[in-house]
Amino acid sequence: MGGPVSCWNGPPSFFMCPNSSHNPAPALIGMEHTDLVKLCHSAGVKPVHADRINAWVFRHGVTNIHDIPELPQTLYDYLDTHVSQLKPNCVANRKADDGTHKMLLRMPDGKEIETVLIPGPGRLTQCISTQVGCAAGCKFCLTATAGLTRNLSAAEMVAQVMLAREKSEQEIRNLVLMGMGEPLHNYDEVARFVRIVTDPMGFAFSPRRVTLSTSGLVPAIYRMIEDELPCNLAVSLNATTDEVRSAIMPINSKYPIAELMNAVRDYIGVKSRKRVLIEYVMLKGVNDSIDDAERLCELLDGLGCTVNLLPFNPFPGSGFQRPNDATISEFNARLSKASLVTVVRESKGDEISAACGQLKTEVAERRKRTPVA
Ligand code: SAH
Ligand code: SF4
Question: Rg (Cα) of the chain, in Å, rounded?
């Protein structure tokens, strides 16, 4: 555990800035049950109190340590001085007509990240960011244009869930790690986040309702298998030939389609019977032909994958276009003919630019136009 907190402002709430030199103590909301047990041990109290902290912080969402009932006084004192408690500012909070709800959070170091709540029939899905920016450089992705600023800590990912829960009336049923960033470039913190949100004594999200989406970092997919990370896997395949995939996703030069599909096959495995979701961004004239649809059927033959077709969500200067509806329907029909389950996912909340990374950019643009005195 870190030393005593040097700067202490107001009542505790369990958020932190991981790299802040002002506040070096670890954040309570970034701690797994095993960490909480260690915390109790260091405080000299029984490990059973870890269960109580887990339940009150993650299940009931209390943001003040002293609102957790019946902890020994020594533990309150220990928490007061050994865990950091800073809260990110919600600097934009906008709802589109279709119910999509986007929040922009400013971390204590000034870095901004976004999270989106997407309504569905009887459920709310939250899209979580895992990095500030992204280093993967996919050509069709707005997040890629600014490169990577830094990884997010597990605490900063948990903070997104806690804030969204605070701001929404409906229960959040699903979590998808499909916001800004490549989750597998930030494996340790993302894995910690996944374990925290699926802990049955805490948030208790079902592992079947947490989905990690990757551009295809093959060694990290094997790490997920080895660690038995309690979540689903989604793979952004986005092309059916190495030539096209390498042109739009630089990661493909390192881990080409055949290697990626082997990893998908191994992930699905006979033993665990895990399912993998395949994402496919549709780019006009690039990857939307019937030949592509046929190659996609071959690649996915016998794997039982569901395919999410994502018509390209345009942004200025991208150089790509969304295929027309007829092309998308034909492509979709070809997959359905091969008995693949498909879903066409239009970007929701268009009027608030709900695609990957767009709110942040939009706010930045507005600030440029309206300088603050
Ligand atoms: N980095 C991870 C998760 C974040 S991106 C990944 O790439 O999988 C989430 C999804 O949004 C990915 O499937 C990606 O291919 C898709 N995406 C990115 N930019 C898009 C755009 N402009 N239009 C439609 N989908 C996009
Ligand atoms: Fe990063 Fe995913 Fe965007 Fe590619 S699509 S740049 S991996 S966020």
Answer: 21
Q: Which ligand has the shortest distance to the CA of 358? A: 1
* Distance (Å) from CA 138 to ligand 2 centroid: 6
- Using an 8 Å Cβ cutoff, are 91 and 106 in contact? yes
Q: Are 259 and 216 in contact (CB under 8 A)?
A: no
What is 89-369's CATH superfamily? Aldolase class I (3.20.20.70)
Q: What is the pLDDT of residue 122?
A: 79
Task: Give mean pLDDT, residues 49-77.
Answer: 93
pTM: 0.90
At 240-281, the pLDDT tens digits run 999 999 999 999 999 999 999 999 999 998 556 678 999 999
Nearest CA to ligand 2 atom 4: 138
Least confident of 16-30, 64-78, 187-201, 359-373: 359-373
Residue 114 Cβ inside 6 Å of ligand 2? The answer reads: no
Q: Please identify every residue annotated as catalytic.
A: 114, 356
Q: CATH number of the domain at 28-82, please?
A: 1.10.150.530
Domain assignments of the chain as residue spans, ordered by start: 28-82, 89-369
